[in-house]
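Provenance and format

Records in this collection were gathered into a single text stream. Each protein contributes a sequence line and a token line. The two records reproduced below are adjacent in the stream.
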Amino acid sequence: MSELRLAVAGVPEHFNLAWRRIAERRALESLAVDLHWQEVSEGTGRMIDLLEAGDADMALLLTEGAVAGVANGRRIGLLGGWVASPLRWGVHVAAASEAQSARDLPGQRFAISRYGSGSHLMAGIYAQQHGWPEAPKFVVVDNLAGARRALSAGDAEIFLWERFTTQPVVDAGDFRRVDELPTPWPCFVAAVRDGLAPEMLGAARLALRAALHEAQGLSCADRAAHAFAEAYALDPGQANEWLAGTRWADATALDPNMLAGVGNAMRGVGMIEREPATAELLVSADTGEGEQRMELYWCPKTRSARVIWMLEEMGIDYTKTLIDIRDPEARKHPGFLEASPMGKVPALRDGETVMADGAAMCLYLADRYSAGTLAPTIDDPSRGRFLYWMFFGPGVMEPSMGEKFGTAQPNRAAHGWGDFATMVAALESGLAGGGPWLMGEQFTAADVVVGSTAAFMHLFGIPPESQAITDYVARCTARRAYQSAFGDFTTG
């Protein structure tokens, strides 16, 4: 398989640390994707220029800038979400400015990176919200450095930029923040250039999923705020505040109602003349591989939830076919029986591949779609440890839990899983290796298998007396994908 070169652009801000990391360690190399990460300080408007010129294949754009770009005829399409939480725009003036609050700002000039950028579009929103009697005026300054010069020289008076990125400038005494403006929508989306070949769209989707997993892992890691602070020269306290309010998006879908709301707001302040239709905004789901949609045969409150967790972590588009395991007729579904001859859920159909057993499915999905992120590659020395934990869940944890839950007598010599106490000790040892997950700092499919099984121990009333395992379960259950998959276990 020939390697695809994928050029991805984003602003040099803390939101994009995950992209830097997966590019530096070439995490997509095993999937034949050569990811090139480029940082663009001029922001969304400049990145749209790069997409149209073919100098970037994908870019992480401010949502309002992406929607306005499509409305204004820019040749881009939205692939998926990146950051689901709002952006906190800081409203800044020069430190020596007489302006003390929003009341003092009408009529003054906004410094913007370029027309069509977030700093331009949100300035229009800000002026409207505060009832400015006249349309705002703008001065193009290219980037944050240009804004510092412009406000210092009196060439512009106001600058809107992400408030945590500008905090060092405020601390240095160049800017003073007089207000904040949170966006009423998710702040960043992933966009691609028009005409991107189907196989490149597939590569872009893989890259977006990998970056979302990296971001989730970073956010859950010990000293997570320190990692972001160190990479972008932020105060650790500020980084922690930002991280606490940040949610990462679902790579598979963007809400059409949300996009319509952004378009309506942009038209309301005169930034666009028409609201783009959903079909104009979103790129096709076709990746050029011609595969059918993945199908999961499942039943509520079963081990099916483990595979749903895995699929939700990956952001893969799939359908669920309900198999009521209490109904013998339901188990006769021909597609289900082909995938699961024993008539047990879960079972999976992925094109011509059919299979049963939840742990096997998790391993297949990780290797097939997320090698290097949710699974170490075959030639990675850590692969052996990863496989150990992948099979530890069904091979050791589940039978020892059955022993604990039932009446079987422990027999370490005869039972391949040892006994419940030995299993607990082994898992504690694995979690003591450093980092929040079984493989250290990187969340993997092994955490889906082992974490779901450990969560079952708590759900079924046999939790081990282990603070390390309790804390590990808490980290697993805090993940959005887990909550999406396991909601039916806790709702009756």
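Adjacent record:
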Amino acid sequence: MRESLTLALILILVVAPLEFGEYDVAITLNRVKALINGDELLLPPPWFKKVSAEGVKVGIVDTGIDLSHPDMPAVDEDHFRDFTDPDKKEPYDDVGHGTHVAGIITGTGHPQWNPIHAYFPFGCVGIAEGVELYVAKALEKDYDENGEIVGKGSIDSLIKAIEWLMDPDGDGNTSDAVDLINLSLGVVVENGLWGIVDSLRMRKTMKDLEQIIERATKTGTVFVMAAGNHEVDGDPEIVAPADMSELITVGGVDHNGNLCDFSNWGNEKNRKPDLVAPAVVASTYPMNLDRGIRDGYVGLGGTSMAAPVVTGAIAVLMASNSTLMDWTPDLNSEYVGRTSYIKDILMDNCRDLGDEGWDESYGYGLLDLYACFQVMGDSDLDWNWHFFIALALTTLIICAAIYFMLRRKRRKEMEGEEEWSYEAQ
């Protein structure tokens, strides 16, 4: 029997939409944006422009993407690879997890008129609008012992997915590598029968994975990874590769900022997680897999949801900083890759939760997007001149309407005075 190394996503599919276990609701992305102090940037008043992430290339290694959902951005064949079935060229998602993650990062939203969509009147608008999305399907549909859908795949598939994202056109030049890679997954080693042989194979395979991550990080690609989930009586420890210093590792909190029961912990040795973000989130989902009211939106809970919140936030920060957009690795610098530079700013500006400073549950605290933007952004919010032009035109039209209405009224009064004067004679 060959080794049994798999990647497994902890997917908790909820029957009642927006409800998750002991938590009251899975919060919408508007609420997520407020929790990470990003509403001033992502939901500004109309006289300011919304901060976008246009120009940033983001890769998702997951279960795929369902482009039939109206809130999904365009992803063509050049931006999609299936490492579970290379013969399939068209983007798809047979699990739903990847579509949920994509919605959190860069859902486009759309106006809805059906009352059943009242919770999402404008669809699902992600954290980082305008990114160029690359999707690597490295996880295929499977079922756990309870019959629930999970995504599983080999570590080899994950390595190939990262290699492709480092050189999408395959010409051997990494100048077209993505800026960010989101890994909402965890490595699970299933018990095999080969004892020490399995152990040696696992170490080699894991070493290969760590090496490709190190190489990609040095060329400027930033990895954001979920800290991992555990059962109530399970092992809560953050394990490889999420314990690597080259990664930004994200734990999960609920809508009140309390650590989620499932979020894995770190230790003094690996100093993980790096930070936390909302982890019980309502986002996009394939309608054919939606077991609720089948509107294409469900609430899922897990650090898999927290990681894309941070990925989207970093994409916004990258787009607002010309140095990060035009990053050139300097091997003589402390910051060999963009990761260490970004990580320092994220850590220094987190909203501290738990024990003061870093702790094994919350890391350095809750992501604070606006505080990071003030440090990293090349400029403050830009004026929305379209709003002022529209306001001026609207004011002009209203003033003109009032003027002509008063003029017409005055003309009628004058005509009435003339008739009265004739009768008086």
